[in-house]
Specification:
Blueprint lengths: L3 H14 L4 E3 L6 E5 L3 H11 L8 E3 L15 H10 L4 E6 L6 H4 L4 E5 L4 H10 L3 E3 L13 H8 L5 E2 L12 E4 L6 E4 L5 H8 L3 E2 L23 E2 L6 H4 L5 E5 L11 E4 L6 H16 L5 E4 L8 H11 L10
Parallel strand pairs: 1-7, 3-5, 4-8, 9-10, 11-14, 12-13, 12-14
Antiparallel strand pairs: 1-2, 2-6, 3-6, 4-5, 8-9
Bound molecules: threonylcarbamoyladenylate and magnesium ion.
Magnesium ion binds next to loops.
């Protein structure tokens, strides 16, 4: 007899083959997937997410050898990273082959590809017999979902099926590296650490993200944002300014001096950055659900996954004025 999981993945693959859309777990965050070769199915992903069409999707494969058919060539540095990190939280941007529909890449000559490290994601791609184009399964601009419930709350009514694989173990999105220029370029810090990437291929360029045009088309300064304003700069004196306000605290480690906060979320009691990353989005969502006036986020050391965490916190805080909600 087929196990329940095999059955539901079979059902999900049938939906993908028929041009439907399925939310599925990966090791980083949940994705909202469609057959990458079916432009109409991909268009529905954009619609459901309310995502602007200028923001391209990542194509997910179940085997590194599948990349060859999707791109013109794979530079040796890209090969090295693929060998080291796949399946895993690394996305490579390469020159695309003509067979990939323009809607997937937003008309760019390049495509972003990754092989996720999650058994359900890999089975889904294999059974669907096509690469799966998928952004994170959240409404555009909001935090990425790290549980099936997060997807259900935001997009539940609009997707054909949600595969539940429990909480995502990494918790922040993949690291994106582009190989268009001679020197590889980091477009988004994420689950694969810059230190490890550079130990394999040497120094990479880092795109400035805070100023001017976003590096990856979707890397708008304000992104990954909850409804409640988030601030990173905080000191004791500011409590006086917000006397009658409810303030939440997103603490990295065991929180000290936290009595003045209305509620506190600790990302990792023992100060483990990986654990903090895995808890990040769910913790912000819980604070966001409490009708607070402000969330104060504690800075995290920018090493390993700490770089990705701080990138997301900076983006989430980039609009935050103390004046309240949007
Ligand atoms: O971990 C992840 O990467 C998750 C899971 C589901 O795989 N996906 C994800 O997708 O975070 P999304 O769509 O939320 O973010 C993809 C980012 C966007 O900022 C987009 O602009 C960028 O990748 N991107 C996609 N194609 C690109 C390309 N050809 N060149 C440059 N950036 C690209
Ligand atoms: Mg996203």
């Amino acid at each position: 007899m087929e196990s329940k999981e095999t059955q539901i993945i079979h059902q999900a693959a049938e939906i993908i083959k028929r041009g439907g859309i399925v939310a599925f777990p990966t090791e980083t965050v949940y994705g909202l997937g469609a057959d990458a070769f079916n432009p109409l199915a991909v268009a529905r992903v954009f619609e459901v997410k309310r995502r602007p069409y200028f923001d391209p999707l990542i194509v997910h494969v179940a085997n590194p050898s599948n990349v060859e058919k999707l791109v013109k060539e794979i530079p040796s540095n890209a090969k090295k990273l693929i060998e080291r990190f796949w399946p895993g939280p690394l996305t490579v941007v390469l020159l695309k082959e003509e067979n990939i529909p323009d809607i997937v890449t937003a008309g760019l000559p390049t495509v972003a590809i990754r092989m996720p490290n999650h058994p359900m994601a890999l089975s889904l791609i294999k059974e669907s017999k096509c690469p799966i184009a998928a952004p994170s399964a959240n409404s555009f601009g909001y935090l990425s979902p790290t549980t099936a419930e997060h997807v259900q709350e935001q997009l539940g009514d609009e997707v054909d099926l949600i595969l539940d694989g429990g909480p995502c173990p990494v918790g922040v999105e993949s690291t994106i590296v582009s190989f268009l220029e001679e020197k590889p370029r980091l477009l988004r810090p994420g689950g694969a650490s810059l230190e490890e990437i550079e130990s394999i291929i040497g120094k990479v360029e880092i795109s400035p993200i805070e100023k001017g045009r976003p590096s990856a088309p979707g890397m708008l300064p304000r992104h990954y944002a909850p409804r409640t304003p988030i601030v990173l700069d905080w000191d004791e004196k500011k409590f006086d300014l917000y006397k009658d306000k409810n303030i939440g605290f997103l603490a990295f480690q065991e929180a000290k001096n936290n009595l003045k906060f209305h509620s506190v979320e600790v990302l990792s009691k023992k100060g483990d950055i990986r654990e903090a990353a895995a808890n990040l989005f769910a913790a912000i969502r819980r604070l966001d659900a409490m009708n607070l006036d402000l969330i104060v986020a504690e800075a995290i050391p920018e090493i390993g996954l700490g770089r990705a965490i701080m990138d997301r916190l900076r983006r989430a805080s980039s609009r935050s004025e103390i004046t309240g909600r949007e």
